[in-house]
Fold:
Amino acid sequence: MVVKTDVCIVGSGPGGALLAYLLAKRGISVVLLERHSDVSREFRGEFLNEEGEDILKKHGLFETVERLGLLRMDRIEYWQGGRLFKRIFPEWPVDHVGIHVPQNHLLSAILDEAKKLDTFRLMLNSRVTDLIQNDRGRFTGVKVRKEGKDMIVESPLIIGADGRFSTVRKKAGIKAVIKNHGYDLLWAKIPAPKGWQPSIKMALVNDSQVALFTQTGGAIQIGWNIEHDSFPQLRKQPFEPFIEKLLLAFPELIESARENIRSWHDFILLDVHSSYCETWTKDGVALMGDAAHTMTPTGAFGLNCAMKDADLLADL
Structure:
């Protein structure tokens, strides 16, 4: 089976989905390939800053996302030894210090609009296995494995929006320069205690940063920096002394954390690194988002940068 399109975008994260929508809206035929069976998976990079918010408003998508559900954070707090010592509020006219947006809400808002367009086609369960080159070395399509069958998508422009371990980048022979930052990140998610305010809370625990992000639906996402590559050794140690440090830093979490973080298995490890490519384009291929410039979790810029890439690429 062969499918032909003006633009083939690999990866239906927020950046790839937004670019697909913006191009299709302009009458350009787009095939958006996603290797998973749906877009309702849980993600950890769901923090929208002012730039990301402005892009969604620019393209008439923010109200839909808001209707589906989001949460404005109204303060940043800094804690030490279980005590609050500094609090930062947004400055007028901004009414938040960041917005939590479940990624399935964001993707639903974008893709539901895109699906109204005849020029847009979303293909799920579609894993790119290779790129196709003509005899002049230009990339002219992708080979796809979809539901156990092989197919080809032919396109004069292939966009790699497939993340930090991009297949498109690898197959196009574009080298990523990797930089480690000396830390990894442990993620956990727990229910927020009663009366918890929508906020970002920060503390230093044994000289390592711990951040708490309030989430839509009454949850707290915990991000705990640990030394790079230290988790295999860390998890061999008793768990209780480790989690006790979190409870000393944030006493309000004692009940919820003890009920929901009971072992090392309740944390998810993120191997933290950033990367950049000396070129984002090569012979009919263009990269965007983490495929072009992997961001660290610090500052939660990844989601917003991917959408900024989409906004800029749509005008080229």
User: Anything to note?
Assistant: The chain has a mean pLDDT of 94. The chain has two domains: 2-46+102-178+276-313, 182-270. Residues 14-25 form the longest helix (12 residues). The two ends are 30 Å apart (CA to CA).
